[in-house]
Amino acid sequence: MCAILLRFAAMSVINKRGITAALLVAACSVPVAAPVAGAAPAAAAAVSAGQDDYAGQGEHKGRFDPKLLGRILRANAYAESRPGFAGIVVRDRKTGAVWRNTDSDTLVWACSTPKLAMVVDLLLRNDAGAITLTAEDRDLMHRMLNSSDDNAAHALWTRYGGEQEFAARFPSYGMTDMRFTDEHPHHWGWILTTADDLDRLMNYVLTKLPAAHRDYIVNEMRSVDVNQQWGVWGAGSAARPGNKNGWSDDNDDGSWLMNSVGFVGPDERYTLAVMNNTQVVENGYDVGMETTTGISRIMFDGYFR
Fold it and tell me: What is the pLDDT of residue 106?
């Protein structure tokens, strides 16, 4: 569930870096998008700046394999040829290389991608003894990750504190750009976020969570239902991809938003975040599925032998 994309084509986007205390510290950067009229930050917490402390748009930090970098650039050219636009972030967790395009810090409705952050939060609160997850809760978590079940997300969001609890900690998992607006209810389905946020969230899962939680989430993302086998999934079976997707036709004009975040390669070496506003109404779902899947396919399909 989401609504209109708020893109700031006529506004300059200001990236700021800051270091503040967070409940759970992720080794990520802290780019903060320009304020949105009528929007308020979901929480004041931020994460510590780390090796990703830079501002490169359409550029990369660290060393990518030249063949892969060429693929990334071709994928971005493909994205630019498609309807609408897509924010893209690619990360090599082994070398530390990161590539992001010019829309990586553009706020877009997150759709169902915050379900991944919800699972992270529930697992960590359970570890801390703040809550006790039941067998039913864990089934709902599985349904959120496997088939992106909205009813499961609603149940857990309501049961475990809603905005006051979940949203207060989401920035600690890397979602430092996220915010709500005054026009919509403050719940998981109406969060504005960026591809940069989704990149940081995915890398929090892979690098900061206890091993048991990390492995659980990785296995869930690698075995998603057919309704999520697109986007990052386009990397192909040899890449052993896993992803969490989000999609909606809730733009004011009925056009579609198609988002995908996940990992590919041996030991989940590469992460990819794509947020695609198709700006297409009729067949927008199919257009966005083709765009997001094509981006991942061009980057990674056939790269792993």
Answer: 97
- Sign of dihedral through CA atoms 290, 296, 298, 302? negative
Question: Are 184 and 3 contacting, i.e. CB atoms less than 8 angstroms apart?
Answer: yes
Q: Name which of 288, 231, 215, 243 is nearest 147 in CA terms.
A: 243
In this model, does residue 57 exceed pLDDT 80?
no
Contact assessment for residue 244 and residue 221, using Cβ atoms and an 8 Å cutoff? yes
Q: Is the pTM of this model over 0.85?
A: no
Please state the rounded mean pLDDT for residues 131-141: 98
Establish if 114 belongs to a structural domain.
Answer: yes
Query: Is residue 142 in a domain?
Result: yes
Torsion of CA 262, 146, 119, 5, to 10 degrees: 60
Chain mean pLDDT for the chain: 84
Is there a domain that residue 220 lies in? yes
Cross-strand partners of 244: 261
Tally the domains of the chain. Answer: 1
The CATH number linked to 207 is: 3.40.710.10
DSSP annotation of 34 reads P
The rounded distance, in Å, linking the Cα atoms of 23 and 47 is: 9
- CA dist., res. 135 & res. 6, Å (int): 38
Position 185 pLDDT exceeds 50: yes
Does the structure show a pLDDT above 70 at 9? no
Examine residue 207 and state whether it is found in any structural domain, yes or no.
yes
Nearest to 262 by CA among 273, 254, 253: 273
Starting at the earlier edge strand, list the strands of the sheet with 39-41: 39-41, 179-181, 192-193, 108-109
pLDDT tens track for 93-118: 999 999 999 999 999 999 999 999 99
Q: Which domain holds residue 182?
A: 39-300
